[in-house]
Each structure stands twice: as structure tokens, then as C-alpha cells.
Amino acid sequence: MASWRDGTKTQYQTYIKKWETFCIQNECSFLDPPIPKAVDFLTGLFQQGLSYTSINTARSALSALLHRKDNTIPFGQLPLVKRFMKGIFELRPSFPRYEAVWDVNKVFDYFRQKCNVSDLSLKELSERLTMLLLLLSGQRSQTIHLLSIASMELSPTRCVFQVKENVKQSREYIKRTQKLRDPELSQLLISYVKPNKPVSRETIVRWCKNVLKSAGIDTKRFSCHSTRAVSISLAAEKSGDIDKIISSVGWSNAKTFQTFYKKPVEQTFNL
């Protein structure tokens, strides 16, 4: 687990806890269970109504976690497990949520209406920084939630996190929140209302949706997660370096990008 990225840990944590509970209830080994028991666990998730994508995440978590003494093949690559997942897909297929994505220029045009960061309220600054972190990194909200000032390098011209991107608003945000921060806590994003505690992932999602709505984007159609498709599609259009994009967002191959994230910009017309 020490080698897992923070985003991976967050993504897997829910299913590892469920797996731990399952092992206790079924009296099986946490790290080296009988394969049918692990498949039963995935079957239980299906019976609970979870999507193929969620069950596949649970499969990945088990594949990374289990250390079977009798076989060197990872759990997720076992023929039985691969057939099981194929059956799950047939019964409950996973399709891309969006056929097209919103135009990122709408957000930037909205930001330009009030481009002097010193004139922004702390609420506006927090929401804008959150949106820029999502767009510049192409990461999920749970990854942004885990960003820490302890792992941040701040200079007059750059603000570098583990996601390796520039964020102009970060300097202003750090300056404005410095006196509000608990010195023992390192999470980057904190609440703009007292007692200014570190925000939750749900708050980050809400801030993102506030910016989308203010920029004129339909939040009934597009969730916070849509920023990932927008960011990655724009990067692919501008650079064309698919291998670099895949590496930066943590994918193992281009299939996920091609299927779920490479989307055209939705065309809008003013009458």
C-alpha cells in the first residue's frame, strides 16, 4: 500500500474496508483467501446494485492487495475473475456519461470578468483555485482534496504540487489563508468560514459546481467529474502527446482515455 498514490488509496479505501468486513464475517484470510471467496465478495457488490465500474475498482483493489502463495498471477488477471467481470459487463454495461463536454473557455471568460485576484473574496478565490486545480491536473476531486501545503513548492512564478502544474491563484490563496490555518494541519484547501477547517471532498465538489453554474454551464447535465474529461480532451487537442497524458493522470493504457474522456466540445449557439 505504501507504493499506492494518494488518489489510488482514496479510490480503493472503500472497497478494502468492505473486503475486511467480508473476511471477518466469512472467516477467511484478508491477504490470502480462497479465490471463490474473493469472487463471492465481488458478487455481493453486484447484488447490492453497484455499477460495473465500481465492481471493477473493487477488483483492482483486491488485485493490488492480495498476496497469494500458490500463484504468481494477480487476482484480477485470473481467468475465472476475467470471465466473471465480462459477465458483469454484459449484465450491467458501463458507458461514457458524456457524448460531448462543455467549452473550457466559458470558465476562463467568467474568470476574466474579475481577473484581479486581490479583489476576490475568499469564497471566490477558494472556488476558482479549486476549479483551476481540477482543470490543470486532470485529477479527480478526491485527489485535489488530498493536496498538501507540506508537499508544495511556492515561488514568485510557480506553484508546484505533486500534480506538477502552475496555479497562479495559489500564491494569493496561501497569503490570504495563512493566518487562518491551524499550523498542525497541512491540507491546502480550507473552509472560508470559521473555524476554517480543512474542507471535505464534498465541499470541493460543491465549489466546482458553483463555478460551473456561474460560468453558465448546465450543472444538471455536467458534474464536477466532467472537469477531468474537459482537461484531458483539451490537453490531447493542444499537445497530441497521448503517452504523456496517460502517464500524468495515472492510467496504464489509452483505452480508458479513448472510451471515457476523449470528447468533442459541445457546440452552443446564441440566437
From TrEMBL:
One of its GO terms (biological process) is DNA integration. It comes from the Eukaryota. The keyword Transferase applies. PROSITE patterns: TYR_RECOMBINASE (PS51898). Gene3D superfamilies: 1.10.150.130, Intergrase catalytic core. GO terms for molecular function: DNA binding; kinase activity. The keyword Transferase applies. Signal peptide: none annotated. Keywords: Kinase, Transferase. This is Tyrosine- kinase Tec. The lineage of its organism: Eukaryota, Metazoa, Cnidaria, Anthozoa, Octocorallia.
